[in-house]
Design a protein that fits this description.
By secondary structure, the chain is mainly beta. The chain contains seven helices and 49 strands. The longest helix is centred in the middle third of the chain and has 14 residues.
Length: 699
């Protein structure tokens, strides 16, 4: 249910109601007077007309006849309609809600007006899907489809994680019946036990069935002629086609006494061990337990506030107020009835036949070993390779049914950022060098290592390799990039790779092989072995006189003590000025320092010359201030002239705000021996503290 105010909800239940229609057609506004009476309607659904479905991707349709719009003939095609519906509240004001975004598919000029038919953004997904193989989370796969079709995904990554299998990595079987991106989205949605629709902002959204009640409809707010089934639609079983052996696998709840949902040959439920596949399929079956709805049809007072999947309770008359009713289809007619319905089958009609394994005709056509096949790969997530690192950017699995020659072509769109060294005034920019490494079945191909050299910016890396005399088996092809002097970023869908050859087949079922790698960085023992310091003093001993005299030579200890070192550490000076000055109470022409305190003429008063000036500070390396609405200047000649820092250096009479004075580089401060800081306070400004780092006060 679209989020509206409590006043709107209250007005929906009033016996007398007033509406209005509005919006734009090709940016031209329209109101009730521009719409032929009884011609405006919107129809949409999230399931078919016979039973509850998941993975459905229906297109919303708008029909209307427009009158006297300032749009030229032959200019309606592909223009956008953004209608709104307004309801008058008890206050007399209108509250408007959007009805969606629709693109005109057909427009006919008649004596009554221009008759248009328009579809929502779900129709934008009816573009050819040219991806044979894809891997990623449901969010990444859905985002890829929306990006390819130039529409926006309205379901967040966090919302996907709440769906069945929403956090799992999915792989698409190459052998599938996907022709368009709407087919692609449909299978992803079914894997998440969701349906897909376009929301009122035109974004593509995934929604799951639930039991949250959004409204209660009594007999006063529905028209005569409603019908309600004498059963609840429930699912306690699930069947999935195993494409590899053309059989159907069945899964049931502990109490299996209702309908069986047939997922068909979902290409995203074919990979993994038997336990893993059962876990994913049972997650869908568990989500189907939310479906416990009574099928119905009824007409209500027209208000398009409800969305597909909304759950209602319907009371009074022949309705059972204790049951749940889900909107799976609606037709909204402006100034007419709002027709809603929920479809479903009777669980008592389920039988053993629906739960037996069966072959599905036309699932798999065996490929001729001489037919040239190709497998397409793209990346659904961002890939980054840092400087001084070696990382895999691409891996592909393919099968050859006989000894074959396979050609692999790759085009990679990437952004390069070179590594720069030096300081603010002396940058040294180097080239980024990329070394490409190929691996076939885990073995590195050392005889071919392409090298590319780049500068900053976007580049295209084109790679090609011929694999000759490849044995009939499952093979892996990996590409690694080793960077030196810079890093690269590959955005989602930046890699386009094709493996082409005779006797190739699709990726097979996962055979249990897991590939893993890890990078071990250089170990740092500096924290274990501490610096040892010692001092030694060597002197000549003078022996005491004795009866026997002997000359003792001076002792040389130079070779006994090695690596004797000493060091020192210095702590940066911080000069702190803490005046706390408020602009409404200031000393005229005041100065302040920690030694002498406030110095200035006049009394503390509001008004003129709202400035605070420090004493001269030596050896400053950086400045930090705590203020609001203040600007700053500095003087290197004890206040004779005042300057500000710009990209051209220190300029006279230039002021700086907080972030500008704090961003002055250290080298710029060191151009002068001493500095004096002045804060100019504007209306409402406060100055609490000025920190001068590395500084000493010039007495």
């Amino acid at each position: 249910m679209y989020e509206v105010s409590d006043a709107y909800k209250k007005s929906m239940k009033e016996p007398v109601q007033r509406f209005r229609i509005g919006g734009t057609v090709a940016a031209a506004p329209f109101t009730d007077i521009n719409v032929l009476k009884g011609s405006f309607s919107i129809t949409n659904q999230c399931s078919d007309d016979t039973e509850m479905k998941i993975g459905q991707v229906y297109v919303g349709e708008l029909n209307a006849t427009f009158i006297d719009l300032p749009i030229e003939r032959y200019a309606y095609q592909n223009k956008l309609i953004k209608p709104t519906f307004g309801r008058m509240l008890q206050s007399g004001d209108y509250e408007d809600i959007p009805l969606g975004v629709f693109k005109i598919s057909e427009a006919n000029w008649t004596s009554s007006g221009v008759v248009v038919k328009a579809y929502d953004n779900m129709a934008e997904l009816d573009k050819a899907c040219n991806v044979d193989s894809a891997t990623g989370t449901p969010y990444e796969l859905a985002l890829m489809a929306c990006t390819r079709c130039n529409v926006e995904l309205g379901t967040t990554k966090e919302e996907f994680q709440g769906f069945a299998n929403g956090s799992d990595d999915l792989s698409m079987l190459t052998e599938n019946d996907i022709e368009t991106w709407r087919d692609f989205i449909s299978w992803v949605a079914q894997t998440c036990a969701c349906f897909v629709t376009a929301d009122r902002a035109g974004k593509i959204v995934f929604r799951e069935y639930n039991k949250t009640i959004v409204d209660k409809i009594d007999s006063k707010h529905r028209f005569t002629g409603a019908s309600f089934s004498d059963f609840e639609t429930r699912y306690t079983g699930l069947s999935v086609v195993n494409i590899e052996d053309k059989t159907t696998q069945y899964y049931g709840m502990d109490t299996d006494d209702a309908l069986t949902y047939n997922l068909g040959s979902n290409p995203f439920l074919q990979y993994g061990t038997d336990d893993r596949k059962e876990e994913m399929r049972r997650a869908i079956l568990n989500a189907l337990q939310n479906i416990c709805y009574v099928p119905f049809k009824m007409s209500m007072i027209g208000d398009p506030v409800y969305d597909l999947g909304d759950v209602l309770t319907i009371s009074d008359g022949i309705a059972d107020g204790d049951k749940l009713y889900c909107i799976t289809k609606y037709t909204f007619r402006y100034n007419g009835a709002y027709e809603v319905q929920c479809v479903g089958k009777n669980p008592s009609l389920s039988n053993a036949k629906s739960k037996t394994d069966k072959n599905i005709a036309g699932l798999i056509n065996q490929a001729d070993s001489n037919v040239i096949r190709f497998t397409v790969f793209t990346n659904t997530g961002q890939i980054k390779v840092g400087d001084k690192s070696n990382q895999s950017i691409f891996d592909m699995r393919f099968i050859t049914t006989k000894t074959a020659h396979v050609v692999i072509n790759m085009e990679i769109l990437l952004t390069v950022e070179t590594t720069e060294t030096g300081d603010d005034f002396n940058w040294v920019e180097s080239d980024a060098v990329a070394k490409i490494h190929y691996y076939i079945d885990g073995e590195k191909l050392s005889h071919r290592t392409p090298v590319e050299t780049w500068q900053d910016g976007q580049h295209i890396l084109t790679l090609r390799y011929d694999l000759q005399e490849i044995d009939a088996s499952i093979h892996t092809w990996d590409v690694w990039i080793e960077m030196d002097g810079g890093s690269i970023t590959i955005e989602p869908y930046g890699i386009h790779a094709v493996a082409l050859g005779q006797g190739m087949a699709a990726e097979s079922q996962w055979d249990g092989t897991i590939s893993a790698s890890d990078d071990v960085t250089k170990l740092d023992f500096s924290g274990i072995f501490k610096t040892v310091q010692d001092n030694a003093l060597a002197t000549n001993n003078t022996p005491a006189k004795s009866t026997v005299n002997e000359l003792i030579a001076g002792l040389n200890f130079l070779n006994m003590f090695r690596g004797i070192s000493d060091g020192y550490s210095a702590t940066e000076n911080v000069m702190t000025f803490t005046p706390y000055v408020n602009s409404s109470l200031i000393i005229t022409d005041a100065t302040y320092n920690n030694t002498t305190g406030w110095q200035g003429s006049g009394n503390i008063k509001a008004g003129t010359n709202k400035t605070v000036t420090t004493c001269d500070i030596c050896n400053v390396t950086s400045i930090e201030v705590s203020s609001q609405n203040a600007v700053y200047q500095v003087s290197f000649d004890s206040g004779a002239t005042w300057q500000g820092w710009t990209s051209d250096g220190w300029i006279d009479d230039v002021t700086m705000i907080k972030k500008e004075i704090e961003s002055v580089p250290e080298a710029a401060w060191k151009q002068h021996d001493q500095v004096r800081i002045k804060a100019l306070l504007e209306a409402g400004a406060n100055l609490y503290t000025i920190y001068a780092y590395g500084g000493t006060v010039n007495d």
